[in-house]
């Protein structure tokens, strides 16, 4: 059996679907009861669990568990906190760090050797570059300000504890580091420093659907690595099945996409059926806040044979549109 903690998340729903399709026995946890009917239909047992409540782990099975995929946690995109008015640092540590320890202790006590969790790609923000592919050996170098800062710090601490359990208790835990992950998602809009805002993806998509002008700010050749949720889900399956899985893994498509390409693909894929298409405008004088970044994918390929199916942004968006038009998971995420 594989346990997925945080199966009511965007990546969690897709990951459980992949595991079921691979023939795995799965048990899931979450905090949103509207997902229970979805998992009942899949034949997957659903358990309500708060990550930071140690007693909740007593509900989970104590035998025949192959591993745990830990996707629950507090992210800035879900936190309606304005740091100019309030501070939620303790929440990040209570949920992301103590919650991870609760999960690890459940595993240690019951002889479960593997937890696979996640971390922020911003832990190496100082090394982001348009020319250098960052490996898993890159030293941490992150920013101590902004609404992502304490999230990154908390995930770093949680992942250090995961490695402590590896070395102290003989576990084989692993961590996936991924940047923006595309796919049918609840995060078309998200909190930015406590204020709900449309994502750049949503803005591009809505403009393309109406054949309105799409504006690209900053350097249109700025390049960023991205991932696709179905590839990430398959990687979790491969990783939990491999004896070689251990430590930190970059998890992207392995091919960067420029801002210009993003705009062009969105224009082409989401344009209206009557053939009208958005005009792409460029404003290089308006700074884009996120620089280029690229990540090496060699370790995941070597250790558990991961090869992304969706290698290009166009492939991702064509699949996204198919799922979007078919209302995939629409009722779950309440768009």
UniProtKB/TrEMBL annotation:
Gene3D superfamilies: NAD(P)-binding Rossmann-like Domain
Record-linked InterPro entries: Epimerase_deHydtase, Lipid_A_modif_metabolic_enz, NAD(P)-bd_dom_sf
Domain NAD-dependent epimerase/dehydratase: 2-250
Source organism, top-level taxon: Bacteria
Cited Pfam families: Epimerase
Protein name, UniProt field: UDP-glucose 4-epimerase
Lineage, uppermost ranks: Bacteria, Pseudomonadati, Bacteroidota, Bacteroidia, Bacteroidales
């Amino acid at each position: 059996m594989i346990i997925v903690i945080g199966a009511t998340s965007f990546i969690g729903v897709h990951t459980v679907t992949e595991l079921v399709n691979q023939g795995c026995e799965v048990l899931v946890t979450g905090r949103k009861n509207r997902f229970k009917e979805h998992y009942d239909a899949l034949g997957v047992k659903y358990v309500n669990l708060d990550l930071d409540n140690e007693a909740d782990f007593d509900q989970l099975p104590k035998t025949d568990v192959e591993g745990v995929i830990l996707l629950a946690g507090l992210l800035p995109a879900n936190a309606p906190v304005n740091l100019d008015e309030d501070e939620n640092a303790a929440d990040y540590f209570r949920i992301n760090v103590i919650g991870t320890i609760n999960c690890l202790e459940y595993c240690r006590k019951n002889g479960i050797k593997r937890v696979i969790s996640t971390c922020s790609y911003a832990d190496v923000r100082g090394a982001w570059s348009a020319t250098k592919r960052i490996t898993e050996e890159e030293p941490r170098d992150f920013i101590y300000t902004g609404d992502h800062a304490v999230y990154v710090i908390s995930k770093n601490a949680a992942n250090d504890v995961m490695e402590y359990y590896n070395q102290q208790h003989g576990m084989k835990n692993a961590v996936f580091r991924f940047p923006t992950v595309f796919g049918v998602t609840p995060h078309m809009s998200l909190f930015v420093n406590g204020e709900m805002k449309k994502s750049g993806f949503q803005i591009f998509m809505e403009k393309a659907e109406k054949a309105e002008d799409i504006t690209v700010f900053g350097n249109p050749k700025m390049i960023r690595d991205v991932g696709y949720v179905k590839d990430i889900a398959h990687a979790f399956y491969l990783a939990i099945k491999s004896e070689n899985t251990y430590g930190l893994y970059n998890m992207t498509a392995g091919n960067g996409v420029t801002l210009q390409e993003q705009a062009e693909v969105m224009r082409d894929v989401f344009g209206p059926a009557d053939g009208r298409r958005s005009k792409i405008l460029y404003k290089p004088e308006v700074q884009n806040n996120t620089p280029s970044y690229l990540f090496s994918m060699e370790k995941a390929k070597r250790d558990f044979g991961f090869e992304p199916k969706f290698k290009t942004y166009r492939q991702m968006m064509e699949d996204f549109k198919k799922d979007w038009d078919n209302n995939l998971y629409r009722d779950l995420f309440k768009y």
